[in-house]
Specification:
Strand content of chain A: under 5%
Number of domains of chain A: 1
Radius of gyration of chain B: 22 Å
Number of domains of chain B: 1
Order of helices and strands of chain B: HHHHHH
Number of helices of chain A: 9
Radius of gyration of chain A: 18 Å
Oligomer: heterodimer
Largest sheet of chain B: none
Number of strands of chain B: 0
Structural class of chain B: mainly alpha
Order of helices and strands of chain A: HHHHHHHHH
Helix content of chain B: over 70%
Number of strands of chain A: 0
Helix content of chain A: over 70%
Number of helices of chain B: 6
Shape of chain B: globular
Chain lengths: 225, 255
Amino acid sequence: MADYLAQIRLVLVKDLRLELRSRIALGQVLPFAVLVLFLFAFALDPDGDVLEVATPGLFWVTVLFSAVLILQRTFALEADDGVLDALRLSGLAPSAIFLGKVSALVVQLLVLEAVLAVGVAVLYDVTFSGIGLLVLVALSATVGIAASGAIYGALSARLKSRDTLLPVLLLPLLAPVLISATRGFEIGLRHEAGGGWSWIGLLSVFALAYLALGAVLFRPLLEDA
Amino acid sequence: MTNTTTPRGDAPSAPAPVGTGSTGTRVLGAVALVLVALTALYGLVISPPDRQLGETIRIIYMHVPTVSVAYIAFIITAVSSAMYLWKRTEFWDLLGASSAELGVLFFALTILEGALWGKTTWGTFWEWEPRLTTSAVLLLVYIGYLAVRAIPADARTRATRSAIIGLVAVVNIPIVHKAVDWWRGLHQGRTVMSTIDPEMGGSQLVAMYLALLAGLIVFVWLLIHRFRVAFLAERAADSGLEHAIEQRRVEGATS
């Protein structure tokens, strides 16, 4: 067990070190996400209360698009240099590789979400209340995005058409996450009583289902796909 | 011509099947035709308009079978995907892919019928009705399956990718259902579009069950034929490759 956790940590640390050295997520995806916040403000009337009302939805749409970029980056690195084959030969358990990659994605996405939260607070004049609910919604949604994203990211990594294929595969799959996370945020931001927990429950079911599925499927995924 | 099962990579001397029909499928096809005709008769002529839905109930006779068949198709795809990852045989791969294709077809029909029903009932082609929305999301999920299927790859790679998507997608079905239901404020109960009205009586009920049975038989008939076409396409691809290799050999010998 300790060995298994060490394997997960190994992959997690490797992925984060790669990111810290290349700064793709920090230097390119993060600015992109903030840029999208500006684009929404240009497209919608910033003086009315449209932006504030739509904030939960805009926040999560931005997270999904940014997540696709981070996933493409993460797995392109692996596929281009034959790292996926090296990982396969490394003797690490495929499920540990999967969980390690999911953990690294979760860390990167949470950093992105924290910056976006500051962004909407400043740009869209949103006051954050009900922090506990918001954090739980964000955590469960992020694990779900990372888990399903890692399966499809690895699946499309070695394909020439991966850049167009990944969003087509992943975004419909994430429709329930977008719905649930947006509703959860709406309830949190508006102090509405109740309801929030059922969304967290649904997000957790999504996250656990894809964590389990990914852990099982990563072996055939690395070996044959 | 009966369906001939040629083992993979067999010599071209084996008799090549020229069609996908067999005695069994011809009987099945005849049964399907009769059932479709009976459904049309009951659904369009014999059964009266509904007290609440009026004439639009006749769309429901189509709607319920297509959506039911689509879900059955996706479950077959998921089971085939799991079986492929376990057994690694061509049968399960081709069955899963054939079923997914039909599932997408029947889902597209479902959405079309829903839009037509919406136009006559609500005056708009699209409302964010929970079942219609769920169908649309799932259709998009499975279009991804077909997109990956269309990418050229060797058989094992393509089959593994497809099987993984078949499993990933089916897990999404109940979650999308719940999310959309709660989103549209439908916490429990049923929607007009998805269940048989318990007050439905006599010839209406006959039309509904006939339509369900007809839909199922048509699906099975299509699935068998689609599977056989997929099987023959694989054989054609194999023999095409052998032919090309043979030609290069002849070129090498003559130059």
